[in-house]
Amino acid sequence: MNNRKKITLSESELILGIRKREKIASEALYDMYSAALYGIIFRVVQHQEIAEDVLQESFIKIWNSFDSFDPSKGRLFTWMVNIARNLSIDKIRSKDYRNNSKNQDIENTVNFIDEQQNTGLNTEVLGVKNLVEQLKPEHKSILDLVYFRGYTHVEAAEELGLPLGTVKTRLRTAIITLRKFFN
Description:
Oligomer: single chain
Distance between the termini: 48 Å
Strand content: under 5%
Number of strands: 0
Order of helices and strands: HHHHHHHHHHH
């Protein structure tokens, strides 16, 4: 745990310190604004890990482009919010982000929801185990390993002696079949 005391400077001291490229100014900048900027970024991107990455990118851009900050046009915080917000929007508009969103692994989504809701997955309430029993044996065994016993796809492939691609294809087929029960 970091026991370092947070640094706070007045806006004018902070601006002067950043212009002089002082280490204490970079630390104060982060200490004073990281939580607020993270909140703004997270509201746009809706993913913790991505928000943390965009926050880091924001501070790098703020530091590297500080010469373009003009105090006569507005407050420092407003300028930084615009940078963070624009980087967040750029991120969600990026092809990479859209592809990752479309290809989000279902177990990551379930884990994310569980973390956010602080709940466990109770498959009995949903009747999922009963529905899984109706699947073909090759689909049922993969679902059991991955979703009920916590195996990764690679571990399931090793356990079943199957190629990874086969495991993923069968898992996808099983999920599509299960979706039909809910629609």
